[in-house]
Write a structure and sequence with these properties.
Layout lengths: L1 E5 L2 H11 L8 E5 L6 H11 L14 E5 L4 E6 L6 H6 L10 E5 L12 E9 L2 E12 L16
Parallel strand pairs: 2-5, 2-6, 4-5
Antiparallel strand pairs: 1-7, 3-4, 6-7
Helix pairs in contact: 1-2
Length: 156
């Protein structure tokens, strides 16, 4: 497990933008953490890497938003309002796994049906510093075993 400290919203987005350099079609990210912990800001950073940062909207009421350019499709899910895993299956959610990059806010709801390989990032607020976020990164499967998640931290 990796623990990354982001000192500000800007640094959270910057970390995500740097991490996005390795993301490809078929990659799955699960973002976990309380409301306001920085999950959507993290998605903004990923979209920025692909030049789509101006397109983000919260998928809270639509469950999934698709962002697309000539290079990749990104599917941003917010599963907060889903009652159970069966609701996700009923919307054909599993079909998205191979279509592009899938990012799941509140994705712990569907962990039992995720592909073998995925990245889970748990976001924590720091009570002593309201701007700081602690990202706990776990990988599942073998695909991401050789990635040093500390290497995406920028000193700038």
């Amino acid at each position: 497990m990796y623990q990354i400290i982001c000192q500000s919203e800007f640094k959270t987005k910057e970390y995500a933008k740097n991490l996005a350099e390795i993301l490809k079609k078929g990659d799955v990210l699960v973002l976990s953490g309380e409301l306001g912990a920085g999950k959507t800001k993290f998605v903004e950073g990923i979209l920025a890497h692909f030049g789509m940062q101006d397109e983000i909207s919260s998928p809270t009421f639509t469950i999934v938003n698709e962002y697309k350019n000539d290079e990749i499709s990104i599917y941003h899910f917010d599963l907060y309002r889903l009652g159970d895993i069966y609701e996700f299956e009923n919307i054909g959610g599993e079909e998205y796994f191979s279509k592009g990059i899938c990012i799941f806010e509140w994705g712990e709801l569907i962990e039992d049906i995720l592909p073998n390989d995925y990245i889970k990032i748990s976001f924590e607020k720091n009570d002593n510093n309201p701007e700081e976020r602690i990202l706990n990164i776990e990988t599942f499967g073998e695909k991401y075993n050789n990635i040093d998640f500390n290497s995406f931290v920028s000193d700038k």
